[in-house]
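Wed. Picked up where I left off yesterday with Multiple sugar transport system permease protein. The coffee machine is broken again, so keeping this brief.
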Amino acid sequence: MSALGELRRLRSSGSGRPTGKNARQENRMGFLFLIPWLLGLVLITVGPMLASLYLSFTDYDLIRPPTWVGLDNIVRMLGDARLANSLGVTFTYVLVSVPLLLVFALLVALVLDRGMRGLAFYRSIFYLPSLLGSSVAIAILWRQMFGRDGLINQLLSGIGIEAPSWISNPDTALGTIILLHVWTFGTPMLIFLAGLRQIPTMYYEAAQVDGATSLQRFFRITLPLLSPIIFFNLVLQIIGGFQSFTQAFVVSGGSGGPADSTMFYTLYLYQKGFAQLDMGYASALAWALVFIIGAFTAVNFIASKYWVFYDD
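Structure written out below (tokens, as returned):
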């Protein structure tokens, strides 16, 4: 029987789906292949989350059994001055670095979208920092570059400027980490570039006929049609910003210094859990971070109704 005949037979017999014994065998095979994923979900994600939720209401030091303390960890968080400082550092980092990164990524995407020669090469070069930026090696390199005798100060001394150690100064240490984060603009840049390629050129052609300037075309056509992509990048970068850890850990040597100027929330959580073995309090901090990220994400979704435009 030909393939066409077989297809007609399946259509005449119904939807073509197996029935009876064959259907049960396929279902069993499907569930069998799902078992590794289900085990991973329970053992690596859901199980530790539930254990962390329980530990957040206990006093636990990894040595003695956990002791139930109720809401004491939450009350303790309200009076923790160092926690308040870490929240301030993290909020500053997110509120400054995320807009800078998105603006820079959009500017580069606009330049690449103009159809320059060697686009694939430049796209790969600009994306490379995103692959390396969160690595320990790049954080160590960053620390060396912005140290007292680093490359930045050597360049500045060449033009007669005597600069301090940027990572040892409380006024500039956070700025170097923000600069490192902005440097990893490759991923949002690629997403912006894909979004720009989806905007129909007929809109720009019609605007040019009407005499619209480049700035008018950008603010009246590009930004509104790109707003869903901007919103997507904004949510991803805010979530990633609150979870930043490696750069601050390496640049400050794990201390959050100088003078707690780079004490990110995640770094403070790490110190409580793994340096001081205060696992109950660290679990409460982790769940507080979940609620903070959830609140920021919810606010973004609510506010998106006023500035994100979907082409229905």
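Quick read: Strands lie at 58-59, 67-68.
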